């Protein structure tokens, strides 16, 4: 699947950079265009792979290239004011060659959190291609303002995009690790999972005979449920027996053939379970997911239709969804078989309920603060009137 990736804010830009590196390393070809938008000049300068002409510094008149300091209302205002500057770079994207836009942002800060829903709304108004978001939730030890920003941004972002893919830093942070090295690992995890998922829709036949390759339209259809999505992953190293796999096809011994096939099938079904029941990018109950897509990547000799079909059936039972798609992503030089599962339209997500609660409480507090200040104001006016009365 070909994407125009737009990283908004520091986390967004860094992750787009990582996707470009992944593309170079694996040849997966998912990033058709890469753009980075920020209010902080230093963050844009720190990027390594996003082309310089695709780095957009917004809000110069307001914050002079220094960022918005986690003020996401200011981030949103600046995005509104400077949307034309972002658009002028997007104008250079060959939109007819992409399958979708993907806006990537950390939702806890100010720039990406405030700006990405504004950009999503703008893109949806102009283009017919789907606009997806990849939202990163802050870890809970980052502090109240980050949680509050995420709670507010999440609500708007999910409304503006066609589907919001979510990664929760909180579920992935390791204690005792520095933030920077923690992010390195987390970003690798993000790029690996989403890279396999989107890369699956980019296989172009060739010599690798896949049994049922995932098509980019299957990814689009899975995401068409809307709402929030999460991604599971599990992998197992396989010995480099692609040659023996090929040889075994010519063996007269039918029993060993069927043993190989049974092992392959069992490995696939067990990887599907591990991916769905292991740590998801956004932990949640998989029961009730509206749609799902199962991708099995690895050497073609280690993939088979029976395993995928069984995995797909199992996912149908677990999610209760009748729209579970599945297919191969053959990668002949890989020594791993990996299972990636996209669960789209998930509902039972504790972290989101928690964020919604934070947003409601903040709203109530705001109402209280407003009510209090209105009372104070009335009191002041009354006091003034009392003082003024004797004069009349
Ligand atoms: N996964 C991941 N999350 C990150 C990374 N950097 C920051 N974050 C998260 O993203 C949130 C937002 O941070 P930034 O992207 O730095 O913020 P910004 O959008 O540039 O906004 P301001 O700095 O306030 O102008 C943080 O609270 C972290 O939770 C990263 O490299 N990887």
Structure commentary:
This protein is an alpha/beta fold and 392 residues long. The protein folds into three domains: 3-200, Tubulin/FtsZ, GTPase domain (Rossmann fold), CATH 3.40.50; 229-344, 60s Ribosomal Protein L30, Chain: A (2-Layer Sandwich), CATH 3.30.1330; 359-391. Helices cover 51% and strands 18% of the residues. It has 14 helices and ten strands. It has helices at residues 9-26, 41-45, 60-63, 72-81, 83-90, 111-126, 144-160, 169-172, 179-200, 216-223, 242-250, 254-277, 305-319, 350-388; strands at 3-8, 31-38, 55-57, 100-106, 131-137, 163-168, 228-237, 291-298, 324-330, 336-344. A ten-stranded mixed beta sheet has the order 3-2-1-4-5-6-7-10-8-9, with helices on both faces. β4, α6 (111-126) and β5 (131-137) form a beta-alpha-beta unit. The structure holds guanosine-5'-triphosphate. Guanosine-5'-triphosphate binds at residues 9-11, 14, 39-40, 67-70, 106, 108-113, 136, 138, 142, 146, 169, 183, 186-187. This is Tubulin-like protein CetZ. Belongs to the CetZ family. Involved in cell shape control.
Largest sheet: 10 strands, mixed
Order of helices and strands: EHEHEHHHEHEHEHHHEHHEHEEH
Helix content: 40-55%
- Cofactors and ligands: guanosine-5'-triphosphate
Assign the CATH architecture of the largest domain: 3-Layer(aba) Sandwich
Number of strands: 10
CATH first level of the largest domain: Alpha Beta
Question: Structural class of the secondary structure composition?
Answer: alpha/beta
How many domains comprise the coordinates?
3
Q: Which segments are poorly predicted (pLDDT under 50) over 5 or more consecutive residues?
A: 242-251, 387-392
Distance N to C terminus = 78 Å
Beta-strand portion reads 15-25%
* Shape assignment: globular
Placed side by side, the strands forming the largest sheet appear as 3-2-1-4-5-6-7-10-8-9
Tally of helical runs: 14
Mean of the pLDDT scores? 89
